């Protein structure tokens, strides 16, 4: 997949500051090292289009409103690109895509909340376990690896709560630290995405490929922040995490809607974390 996959850049804008329409850029994986050429226009914030709430539990309003708590100045360019695919997933009628939009939003927010990036040890360990299972068919250790990864998702949720309740406290904080070699910035990225895309359905694969393309650029970047977002998006895109998110989707959607509305999400967060843990126990591998 790594040498033949085609990546398409998609329009990007930020809810919190200015909208940044970008000309679509087409590039293939063989030339991924070369930076794409883009045209950027700055538009005043008061011209930013209002995202309507269509009333569905999961829709663009929910994930766009939640992601709007992160200023675009704190967000890597390719994370903004990935968010556009996440928004489209939220508006999809496909349950897998909707669940993916929720956990992807949580992952991106969780990695960008802290003033300084941490490590990605839990994400990297899970990605390696998933890549091994996907390539060998041996799922023996996958469930335990996914269970261990839930601690990272819970940390993301706790950081999001902190951002809403006491935003000034996260500005000078550092993201989660681990003890793994290299801070979890090297792992089986391509092998994992082979498994993710090969196991996606017809409704998912286009948008998942967009996330793969953005994550690939962030994985290869030198910035720890970009690296961490890449690992987070890769981990939550694994089918076992997506299946758990589908089961826990009502509570995850309620959490994201609470965040989008600017209300205190403490209670909704506790329910969502418990729901994810219960959901994972019901997922078969």
Low-confidence parts, pLDDT < 50 over ≥5 residues?
9-34
Radius of gyration: 17 Å
Report helical residue fraction.
55-70%
Shape: globular
Class per helix and strand makeup = mainly alpha
Give the count of structural domains: 1
For the sheet with most strands, the description reads: 2 strands, antiparallel
Strand arrangement, largest sheet?
Answer: 1-2
The averaged pLDDT comes out at: 86
Tally of helical runs: 12
The count of DSSP E runs of length 2 or more, i.e. the number of strands, is 2
N→C terminal distance: 24 Å
Percent strand: under 5%
Q: Oligomerization state of this entry?
A: single chain
Textual characterization of the structure:
- The structure is a single chain.
- It is built from twelve helices and two strands, in the order ββαααααααααααα.
- It has 285 residues and is mainly α.
- It has one domain.
- It has a two-stranded antiparallel sheet.
- Helix 1 (60-67) packs antiparallel against helix 2 and helix 11 packs antiparallel against helix 12.
- It is globular and about 45 Å long.
- The two termini are 24 Å apart.
- Residues 9-34 have low confidence and may be disordered.
Key terms:
285 residues; mainly alpha; two-stranded antiparallel sheet; 12 helices; globular
């Amino acid at each position: 997949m790594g040498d033949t996959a085609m990546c398409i850049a998609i329009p990007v804008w930020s809810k919190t500051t200015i909208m940044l329409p970008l000309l679509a850029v087409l590039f293939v994986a063989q030339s991924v090292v070369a930076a794409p050429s883009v045209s950027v226009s700055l538009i005043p914030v008061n011209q930013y289009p209002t995202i309507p709430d269509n009333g569905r539990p999961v829709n663009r309003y929910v994930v766009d409103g939640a992601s709007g708590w992160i200023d675009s100045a704190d967000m890597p360019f390719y994370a903004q690109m990935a968010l556009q695919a996440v928004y489209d997933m939220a508006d999809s009628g496909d349950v897998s895509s909707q669940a993916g939009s929720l956990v992807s939003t949580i992952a991106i927010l969780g990695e960008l909340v802290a003033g300084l990036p941490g490590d990605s040890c839990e994400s990297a360990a899970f990605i390696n376990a998933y890549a091994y299972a996907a390539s060998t068919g041996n799922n023996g250790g996958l469930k335990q690896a996914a269970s261990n990864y839930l601690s990272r998702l819970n940390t993301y949720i706790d950081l999001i709560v902190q951002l809403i309740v006491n935003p000034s406290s996260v500005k000078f904080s550092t993201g989660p630290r681990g003890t793994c070699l290299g801070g979890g910035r090297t792992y089986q990225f391509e092998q994992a995405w082979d498994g993710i895309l090969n196991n996606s359905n017809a409704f998912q694969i286009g948008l998942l490929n967009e996330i793969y393309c953005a994550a690939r650029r962030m994985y290869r970047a030198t910035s720890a922040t970009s690296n961490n977002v890449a690992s987070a998006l890769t981990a939550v895109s694994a089918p076992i995490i997506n299946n758990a998110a589908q089961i826990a989707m009502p509570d995850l959607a309620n959490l994201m809607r609470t965040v989008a509305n600017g209300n205190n999400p403490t209670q909704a967060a506790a329910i969502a974390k418990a729901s994810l843990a219960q959901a994972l126990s019901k997922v078969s591998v």
